[in-house]
Amino acid sequence: MPANTSPSTDRFGNPVDPIVRYARGTILKGTDEEVKRMLLARKIVGERVRTKGQESVHDLSGMNRGSGLEPEDTSYLTSHVPFFERFEGNTEPLALKHMGADPDRHRALILNRVSAANFIALTTVLSRGDRVFALAPAGGVTHPSAVRPISMAGATLKEFFSFADLETAWREEGAPRLLIVTPISASKRHLGFDDFKRALALPRAPNTLVYVDDAHMASRIGFFEEPRTFEVGEIDLAVCSADKHVAGPRAGVFVGRPDLVTKIGSRAYELGLEAQAGQYVGVANALRNFDPKVIKRAGELAKELVEVLAGQYGAKRAYLGGPGVSISGDDVLDIARESRGTTDKPALVAVEAAGLVAMEMLAHDGILTIGAVAMPGSAPVVRLMMYPDGHKLGVERIAASLEHGVSRLAAVLDDAEEARTQLLGE
To answer: Do the Cβ atoms of 267 and 120 come closer than 8 Å?
Structure first.
C-alpha cells in the first residue's frame, strides 16, 4: 500500500482506505457497491426520461459523455474500412494542439478513459521499489486511478499537499523516479498555478519522469485562465479528459514523449485500452469544437451559487470548485447532524452521505450530479457543476434541491437500512 501523508481516519474516526483515501461504510463497502449505486442512478435517469421526457433531467455533472459524433460521420463508421480511410490519424494532431504540445517533440494516443491512461502509463514506466512523489491540491488527493497502479507496480508513493513540503522531501531524499501532479482533484480542489510551475521546475535525476493527471484541464483553461498542460513546463507524460467540460465521449487524451507513448501505446493495444472507432471520432469533434467561454460562463453562475450556499451552510463549507460548487461529505454529514440537532456519530460515512444527497436530488428533482453516476473511487463530495444545464435551472432551484437532499440525509442519518434502500435499491 502507498505511504502518504493523508489522514488515517476521517473526521468521525472511521478508518480511511489507503487507495481511495476515504472511509468505507456499511453500505458502500467497496467497488461492488459503488458500481451498484451508479447503475441504480442510471436506471432512475432512464425511467424518468421514459415517463417525463428528456427535459425532466437536468445535468449538473460537468460532463457530456455523449458520442460526440456528427450526422455526417456515421456512414463512415459502418466498418473499419471506411473508418481507416476517413478518420485514422486525424485525432492525434488535435490532441497535441489541445494540450499545448509540440508535434516535433510529443506524440498523442487516444485511450478509452483517463483511468485507462493512468493505469497503463504508470504500470508501464514504474517498477518495484521505485519512489513516486505526488503533488495534489490542499483538501484533495491524487486520484485512485493513479494511486492503484502505483501500488500494483510495487512502487512507493509519498503524497504532498503543498509545494514547500514537496520541495523539502525532494531536497532531503533526492529526486524520485516519478513525480505525478494533479492540478485539479476529483473533489474540485485547485492547485495554485505557481506551485504547479515550480513543481515542474524541480531538478530531476536522469531517470526522473513527470506525469500530469490533468483530467480537468478544460476547467483550468476556461475558468482559471491557465495555460494548456504542456505550456506550463517540462512534462514527460500527461492526460486530460475528453468529456469533463468538453462535449465529447468518455475518453483519455494522452500525450507525451514519443518513446514513452510508443511503449505505453503498445501495451494499451495489447490490453484493449485504446479508444474505439466511435470514441476516436467523437474525441476529434470535441477537441476541434472546444470553447473555453462556455466554461467561463458556467463559472460565473457557480460564483452566484457559492454565495447562496455559504449563507445556507456557512462560508467555509461550500467552496468554489472551478465552474461548480462543492461540499465535502464530512461537512454534509455535519450539516445534517446540525439539522437533526444531534452530536452522535452518524451511521453513514462521507461517501454514503454525498451519494445519498445526490440520489435524492436525482429522484426528487431530476438533477443529475457526479455523486449519483460517478465511477468507483470518485471523491466523497457533493459536486454541483454548472455545466451543462446550470443556467436552465438557476441558483435558487439548485439550492432548494440541495436543501431537500440534505434534509433527506438528516432523516436517515442513524438509519443505515433506509439509506441502503436509497443508495442501492435494496
So the answer is: yes
CA distances (Å), origin 268, targets 248, 288, 378: 21, 24, 23
Rounded to 5°, the CA angle 351-353-359 comes to 100
pLDDT digits (tens, 9 = 90+) for 159-183: 999 999 999 999 999 999 999 999 9
pLDDT for position 5 = 59
**pTM of the predicted model as reported, rounded to 2 decimal places:** 0.95
Are 204 and 210 in contact by the 8 Å Cβ rule? The answer is yes
3-state SS class at 241: strand
- Between CA 178 and CA 236 the distance in angstroms is 10
Strands (E), 92-250: 107-111, 131-135, 156-160, 178-181, 209-213, 237-241
Q: Find out whether 370 and 245 touch, Cβ atoms under 8 Å.
A: no
Domains and CATH numbers, the chain: 31-62+292-424 (3.90.1150.70), 71-288 (3.40.640.10)
Are 124 and 270 contacting, i.e. CB atoms less than 8 angstroms apart?
Answer: no
Q: How does DSSP assign 271-290, residue by residue?
A: HT-BPPHHHHHHHHHHHHT-
pLDDT at 4 over 80: no
> 47-57: per-residue pLDDT in tens?
999 999 999 99
H or E, element range at 33: helix 31-52
Cα–Cα distance for residue pair 129/155, rounded to 1 Å: 5
Percent with pLDDT over 90 in the chain? 95
d(C-alpha 318, C-alpha 312), whole Å: 9
Neighbours of 327 (CB within 10 A): 27
**Exposure on the CB side of residue 26, measured as CA atoms within 13 A:** 12
Instruction: Fill in the amino acid letter for 62.
Output: G
Cβ atoms of residues 348 and 21 within 8 Å: no
State the sign of the Cα–Cα–Cα–Cα dihedral 360, 363, 367, 371.
positive
Tell me how far apart the alpha carbons of residues 37 and 295 are, in angstroms, rounded to a whole number.
Answer: 29
